[in-house]
Structure formats: C-alpha cells, structure tokens
Design brief:
Low-confidence stretches: none
Number of helices: 9
Radius of gyration: 17 Å
Structural class: alpha/beta
Strand content: 15-25%
Number of domains: 1
Mean pLDDT: 97
Distance between the termini: 46 Å
Bound molecules: NADP nicotinamide-adenine-dinucleotide phosphate
CATH topology: Rossmann fold
Order of helices and strands: EHEHEHEHEHHEEHHEHE
CATH architecture: 3-Layer(aba) Sandwich
Shape: globular
Amino acid sequence: MARTLLITGGASGIGAETARRAAARGYRIAINYRSREAQAKAIVAEIEAGGGEAIAIPADMAREAEIVRLFDETEKSLGPITHLVNSAGINGRRGRVEDYDAAALAEVFAVNVVGLMLCCREAGRRMSTRRGGKGGAIVNVSSMAATLGGRSGSSAYAATKGAVDAFTKGFAREVASEGVRVNSIRPGMVLSEMTEGRLSDKAFRSGIEASIPMRRVGETHEIAEAILWLLSDEASFITGAMLDAAGGGYII
Ligand SMILES: NC(=O)c1ccc[n+]([C@@H]2O[C@H](COP(=O)([O-])OP(=O)(O)OC[C@H]3O[C@@H](n4cnc5c(N)ncnc54)[C@H](OP(=O)(O)O)[C@@H]3O)[C@@H](O)[C@H]2O)c1
C-alpha cells in the first residue's frame, strides 16, 4: 500500500530529518512549514533528486482553517494520508510563573497543543476504519520536559508537552480498534534550529551535558530514527506509548 506521511514543522530540525529518512524508505512526503519556504522547498528538491516524491505546503498550526486545508491539499496531491508526525512546536516565552503573560501562554498552547490535537482530528477522520479509512500511524513530538516540568523557566513549555502526552494516551485508546496507532516521542535536548542559539554558548552547553546521563546532547537523526520505527509496522502492537529518546533523561 502507498504510504503518505505528513510532517508538521517539517522544514527544519527533527521534522526535516524525519522527512529525508522517510523518503528514503519509500514514503511520499508532505512537508508543512510556516515561515521556512526556502528550507521546505530545498528538502523537496533533495527528496526528488533521490527519486522520491515530496511536496511543501504552508500552514500555521495555530489556525484551524489552515490545518484543514493542509490535510486537504496533501491528499489531493499525494493520496490518502497514512502517517502523520506532529513536529511543529515553539518554546514560547521562558520565565518564572510569577511573570506569566496570558497572551504568551495562549500562543504556546495554540501551536503545541491545540494545533497538534486538530491535526490528530483531521488524521483520525481520514485514517479510522470506523469512518471508511484504511488505518494509519501517528507520532506526536513531545519532550522530556513533560516528565519533570522542564528546565528552569520552561514550565509553560513543559505543560504543553504534558498535555501532548495525556492527549496521545486518550486518543490512542479511542482509535486503537480502528486501525490507528498514536504514540509520542520525548526527545531530550537535541541540537536543532530550536536550540542551536542557546547551545552555542559553551557554558550553557556543558551545563546541559553534565545533566544528561550520556553526557551529550542528541542529534536530529537519533530522534528521526525512533519516530520512523514508531510509524512502521515493526511497532504494530505499540500505541499510547511515550518513547524517551533522551540519552537517559536527567541526572537527578
Ligand atoms: N530540539 C530539542 O532539544 C527538542 C527537545 C524536545 C522536544 N522538541 C520538540 O521537537 C519538535 C521539533 O523541534 P526541533 O528541535 O526540530 O526545532 P525546530 O527546527 O525549531 O522545529 C520546529 C518547527 O516547527 C515549526 N513551527 C513552529 N510554529 C509553527 C506553526 N504555528 N505552524 C507551523 N509550523 C510551526 C517551525 O517553523 P517556523 O520557524 O517557520 O515557525 C520549525 O520548522 C518541537 O515540537 C519541539 O518542541 C525539541
């Protein structure tokens, strides 16, 4: 059966690496992006040069109508969506709880939680055998932040990822008998566009590395490979699981 994988936030970091590696394994790829048009198009060109099939589609995960259009356009170009990776995410404003700002909280929850849940809604509507679909697999990109509340100043981000994990478990049980598997992956600190600014500070990086049992940050391919395994039939009895890809988590 043809496999079509939609990746939100697929133009950079973990999403982009997942796109490249999934294309090499025969998936047709839809790369969603928000502002990174050139990066998205470059990955499409790279995949096509390797003999694969890919398209790039802009859509803001904070806007429901754009999410619905993203799914419609993907299916129009590539056929039924069989796999989904929700990688789009933002850090949001870092800071202490006493300095919270309602608009900033709403923004980080809109992208990391509500957008992801609406993508799952769209995927479920299309994949569920209860609605005439052929089943599928979904991976939600959570974070190790969900486990301990995040590093200092990241409690709001951690709360969004905790919500992702709870939602993943609930949704997975709802569609488990309808051919759809839903899992989340919890990366630890990974070198990507999201973190390279902070990790270029040597003192910050060595502090982070000292807190990880493997004593190093991760690379995007190490997360992408775990995502691809969760998407694959090799993980056929796994749903509602949280897979930590984090070098052992935190030293506490
Ligand atoms: N890197 C880490 O250490 C780490 C650790 C744990 C979890 N994660 C999670 O892994 C996922 C991927 O992050 P990454 O490390 O690969 O960083 P990244 O390169 O910054 O990837 C995030 C992507 O999401 C996109 N995005 C953000 N808001 C969006 C929106 N409203 N609509 C559509 N796309 C949007 C970004 O595009 P724009 O810039 O154009 O908005 C970007 O391409 C995120 O969910 C993140 O929370 C990362």
